[in-house]
Design the sequence.
């Protein structure tokens, strides 16, 4: 009977270790998912900033083109 108690204790200890390991892995996965969400937010923010810069560059080039073409027309 004493042997059954020792075996049960061993299985309980094994179950406890497995559950703690699972808890640690779940916590790590949760934190990683949170980091991915923050990364997505940063990527979206950078994409918006890039689009704004692209639009400003296009506007500046358009104005420069008008200036250059205007000066060419005056020279003719």
Sequence:
């Amino acid at each position: 009977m004493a042997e059954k108690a020792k075996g049960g204790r061993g299985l309980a200890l094994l179950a406890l270790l497995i559950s703690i390991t699972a808890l640690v892995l779940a916590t790590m996965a949760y934190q990683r998912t949170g980091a991915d969400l923050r990364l997505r937010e940063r990527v979206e923010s950078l994409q918006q900033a890039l689009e704004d810069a692209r639009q400003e560059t296009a506007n500046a080039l358009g104005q420069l083109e008008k200036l250059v073409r205007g000066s060419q027309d005056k020279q003719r």
Q: What stands out?
A: The radius of gyration is 33 Å. Helices lie at 2-75. The chain has two domains: 7-35, 37-75. The chain is about 95% helix and 0% strand.
